[in-house]
Amino acid sequence: MKKRSRERVPKMNASSMLSALQWAEETFGSVHLGDVRRTQRAVAIAGAIAQHPAASLPAQLPDEAALEATYRFLQTPDVTYEQLIGPHVAQTREQASKQQQVLLIQDTTEVDYQQHPTTTGLGPIGNGTHHGYLLQSVLAVVPQSRDVLGLMHQEPFLRQPAPKGETKRQREQRERESQVWERSVQAIGTPPDGVQWIHVGDRYSDMFSFLWLCRQQQCDFVVRAAQDRCVDLLVEQADAPLPPRSHHRPRAGQPAAAKPQHLFEVMRSWSAVGEQDLHLEASKQTKARVAHVVLSFGCLRLLPPEHQPASQGRPLVVWVIRVWEPEPPQGVEALEWILLTSVPTATLAQA
Questions:
Q1: 237 DSSP assignment
Q2: pLDDT by residue (tens digit) across 323-344?
Q3: Cβ atoms of 210 and 310 closer than 8 Å
Q4: Helices (runs of H) and strands (runs of E) counted in the chain
Q5: How many CA atoms lie within 13 A of 162 on its CB side?
Q6: β-bridge pairing 230-232 and 261-262
Q7: Where would you tag: which of 91, 201, 258, 319 has the fewest CB atoms within 10 A of its CB?
Q8: Cβ(61)–Cβ(48) under 8 Å?
Q9: DSSP annotation of 325
Q10: CB proximity list for 208: less than 8 A, separation 6 or greater
């Protein structure tokens, strides 16, 4: 048998090793795989991976026999992703239910199998030139201590290319890749009484249906704005249903409605109420620097899209926080972050 090459990995101290093994036992010691030896193997593999998470399997496992046993374990039909992840998700949910406030940070990861061209059952990723699968993960984090509780939910899925010649109406009727955000919210559900769960997402999560579902599940949200939505300032009316098509172009014979306001124009008209310096780390494209930013915030209503049956024509009251760099260095693009949140933000300290 040809031996696989092994990379050198840094040694762990005794306390870190014990912590990794303890975590593996607590996380995978209760999985049911049809044989107690498989459970023991799962714990051993997880402990080895946790000790050197950035290394490859040949570097993580102590000898050739353990490595071969791991490959057999991973190819066993009775060992499934759902069985392995289930106890961990349940433990995370139990811990998240005991906290006063938990951030549920959601994002999508592309798992690239381009170096394994014969692997089947995959789909396109990136710009379509590579193949692999997508992984939607929701990480539970306690904001005050920054303790990571674990995965609250995770879903692997494949990208489905849009059919050629698909119309806008057909696209709206079929299941879309972006709906994985909503499925995560539904899978996590409602927090216990007295506990606040806040879904956190990047610009890809700025979907009215996602924001609406968070509130339906009695969860809050903080997302980075991407859509220049129609808005109004009638927050005292809360989520009272809007007149049909009140913020869209009137039909023939109907009186013209007032010109709708748009999110970016409204919030960029607000004056700054605070300022601070931000230390920005260097990246491949930019050098480390200090940015002087200012902040503004306010409350308004997001008006539902025309084709949004779930909201039944009801707007969504949100607080908007804008952070921007009024005077960036010459030749440097100014910073700007626009956040939408259901968490009340009435003071500078809250913002």
A1: G
A2: 999 999 988 889 999 999 999 9
A3: no
A4: 9, 12
A5: 13
A6: antiparallel
A7: 258
A8: yes
A9: -
A10: 229, 302, 304, 305, 308, 311, 316
81-222: CATH number: 3.90.350.10
CA distances from 90 to 49, 75, 146, 151 (A): 21, 25, 20, 9
Question: Is the dihedral angle over the CA atoms 201, 103, 126, 186 positive or is it negative?
Answer: negative
Q: What is the pLDDT of residues 185-223, one digit of tens each?
A: 999 999 999 999 999 999 999 999 999 999 999 999 999
First-to-last C-alpha distance (Å) of the chain: 61
Tell me if 97 sits within 8 A of 219, measured CB to CB.
no
Kindly give, in sequence order, each residue whose CB lies less than 8 Å from that of residue 329, ignoring residues fewer than 6 positions away: 289
- In angstroms, the CA 254 to CA 244 distance is 11
What predicted TM-score, i.e. pTM, was given to this entire model? Answer: 0.85
Q: CA 76, CA 30: separation in Å to the nearest integer?
A: 18
CA dist 95 → 81, 141, 218, 227 (Å): 22, 10, 18, 34
Quote the strand ranges of the chain, DSSP E. 101-112, 123-125, 130-141, 148-157, 196-201, 220-224, 230-232, 261-262, 274-280, 289-302, 316-324, 336-341
Backbone angles phi, psi at 8, to 5 degrees: -85, 135
- The residue ranges of every structural domain in the chain are 14-79, 81-222, 225-351
Tell me what the mean pLDDT of segment 6-16 comes to: 46
Give the phi and the psi of residue 290 in degrees, each rounded to 5: -105, 125
Q: What phi and psi values does residue 59 have, to the nearest 5 degrees?
A: -85, -25
What lies within 8 Å, CB to CB, of 174 at 6+ separation is none
pLDDT digits (tens, 9 = 90+) for 84-119: 999 999 999 999 999 999 999 999 999 999 999 899
The superfamily CATH assigns to domain 14-79 is Tn5 transposase; domain 1 (1.10.246.40)
At 306 the pLDDT is 77
Among 26-30, 215-219, 317-321, the range scoring the smallest mean pLDDT is: 26-30
DSSP class per residue in 256-310: PPPPPEEHHHHHTTSPP-EEEEEEEPP-SSS--EEEEEEEEEEEEEEPPPSS-GG
SS3 64: helix
